[in-house]
Amino acid sequence: MYASFPGSLLADSAGLLGLLFFAHGLADFVLQPAAMARAKALGRWQGFAGHGLVLLVLTVSCTLPYRMPGAWMLWVALPVLHVALDVLKQRALGSLAARWGPAPLAVFVVDQVLHAIITIAVWAAVVGVAQPGWLQELLQQGGGQPGDGHLPGRLLALVQERADLALGLLGNAYVYAVFAAGYLVQYLLQAIPATSPAVAASVEELMGGSASRVIGLLERALVITLVAVDALPAVALVLTAKSIARYPSLREAKGLSDGPSGISPHDALHFQEYYLVGTLASVLLGILGGLVARLAVKGLALTGLAAGPALPTVPGL
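Below the sequence we write its predicted structure tokens.
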């Protein structure tokens, strides 16, 4: 079944890469409490050490099912490089903010891109130790052989053949589209300048409360699940329910111009636009995560996960 891949190494290691990204997402967005994040922001070693320990435990948990003798390289390299990047980021934030001003959205995106590059590079290095030249051989097969299909099609087929890869995609869809997307939406709204301090305070109250964050998490989780089970029209119900719940707040914002706050009708409209931008961005990210989850669900159905297929052993490690 996997003869088109060099030594089945791509088939075996693709699922591992997905689980490594899943471990990163859990460590950064789910299992990092506010106290740990504050300690890191203050440059305290306890925060960085705790974060690295969480990533180490998750990385070990992801690699153990593969029975990899060389897994220690992942256990050492990923937590160390992850923490080192976090330390460098915190040290650079001060000088960057002084020069260009605070830009949390750009910092968040660049930070996650660098973490993704590190994860892929370490994964590729470990796989390369197991089978030197695997990447060159894979690229040479990119055009495909007669009747074999092209590389993108074969990579897509992996999801429908490998339970571990499908599970990794499903876990990543929820972790990143539910939890990481919350930070992305928050930073996106912060990047939009408020027309007045009163509008900024209203936006912070509406979008920044703990209840609002929980609503956002549930909203994206529902959207992902509905898209994954091919119930995309039902997403409209989620939007309707949220609009009904938020209507009193939006109506109050529209009437603020008559109150002591002195917010003009233009500012009130601007506040409503904040709500619309945040909602549309949240739903869009949920739909994107749902498309990935739908691919994973279909893959799990085709792999016969209910029969309990054994996870693979990566050869040569």
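The chain has two domains: 6-148, 174-302.
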